[in-house]
Amino acid sequence: MTKPFQKIGKKRGVVGVIFRDERLLIIRRSLTVPAPGKLCLPGGTIEKGETEEFALVREMQEELAIDVTPVRLCWRSITPWGTLLSWWLSELDPDVLPVANPEEVAEVHWMTSGQIKMQRNMLPSLPQFVEAIQSGEIDVGVPF
Ligand SMILES: Nc1nc2c([nH]c(=O)n2[C@@H]2O[C@H](COP(=O)(O)OP(=O)(O)OP(=O)(O)O)[C@@H](O)[C@H]2O)c(=O)[nH]1
Asked: Nudix hydrolase domain location, by residue (predicted)?
């Protein structure tokens, strides 16, 4: 029998999909974490016993000092190194400015899809995510 997604014993992660004015919140990873300096979405590992939503809220606090509201799961992916990643469309108060925790995050950006496509130093999942939105595989509820 096939085991449920979350029970196959791999590392699991969660990322926050947050739009503002049709731009996506992107971080550059700090130079002291795995995949240093790469652009990706904010997020991290789901700890034992955590729900995806709980881990998401915790990671957004740790990395960017923001309180997000998870809205819905919009995508699932598996990294080339076997991490199961859940992509959560999330809401952030429009007046709140994310503040990078320098231990984990070097830069914070709000990028259009065109700007993302011009970047070179990204985790592979980022351009894949944008392509999946534009092909209609993922519905994020805003034009992108
Ligand atoms: N944060 C983040 N991680 C991603 C993305 N795409 C992607 O494949 N990953 C992978 O998801 C896993 C978890 O993310 P992470 O690197 O930020 O978390 P971490 O293990 O440093 O844990 P921590 O932030 O809880 O300390 C890593 O294997 C990471 O490479 C993405 O867009 N954002």
From this structure: 9-134
